[in-house]
Fold this sequence. Notes:
By secondary structure, the protein is α/β, with parallel strands linked by helices. The protein folds into two domains: 3-86, no CATH class; 94-309, 3-Layer(aba) Sandwich (Rossmann fold), CATH 3.40.50. The chain is built from eleven helices and eleven strands. An eleven-stranded mixed sheet has the order 3-2-4-11-10-9-8-7-1-5-6.
Amino acid sequence: MTTAETYAAFAAREAHGVSPAYERLSLAVAGDPELLALLDTVPEAKRQPNLLFGVVRLLGGPVGDPDAFHDFAVANWAGVAAQLCTRSTQTNEPGRCAVLLPELASLPQPLALLEVGASAGLGLYPDRYSYRYGDRRLGAGGPVLECALTGTEPPSRLPEVVWRAGLDLNPLQVTDCDDVAWLDALIWPEHHHRRERLRAAAGIAAADPPALVRGDLVDDLPALAAQAPPGATLVVFHTSVLYQVPADRRKGFEALVRTMPGHWISVEAPEVVAFPELPPAPDETLHNVVALDGVPLAWARGHGQALSWFGPR
């Protein structure tokens, strides 16, 4: 897929109906030869829309007006390119816990959670957040995570978590202002509720920080998993992470995690973690597949706002 096609697809599948500003901006970049030529000077993995838009926002550039965005990006390309090459999309969306909760609540308790690609670790607190599935509310503290759930009943309990750890090539700290600024820049412009959620979740993590380890998802996973307490069910999970991992390392991770004790929950796009047969997605927008131990169970929207169950319970 060309860079122009990548931006056009992002506009149609991810931003459409979710972020009018990013839909307009993606279509503008897709038709902008000057910006496309500049993007093609950085490694392919660093050309993705979320990364470019987040970097420009971090540097104080405009994203609401495509013409102003073009002028800022071109005039400041040296700084933009430097940030693209050193940063990665580490969107730490607590709302994704809403699509993890049905499986986490169904596993033998208590749980030892290990998140691969943990960013700042905000996905490691599913027991500290509250949830609303339609008219069903679960939990009493933390931010309320809204999720439109179809195909199954909402979970009836929160998980019991006795250990939480994260693995990331570049773990972020919610106590570091620069790290929090990057997480904020990755939130889409109109998503004020996500920005409020980020701040609330960051407060929870800062009060009881998880163990965040800098490391590789293949080389360093077994040693971290071995630290999980005996008697707890180990759950290795990841959400919208493996698309950033080279294909050979991705295959190595999948082979490794299948041999480990406990359970594996993946929430990834179907072209990233492939399954032989899947029912049609609810619509044409981007959906991830929620799978437990390699068995696909549901379609999920990217920020956890909807979950369409199709698998066994």
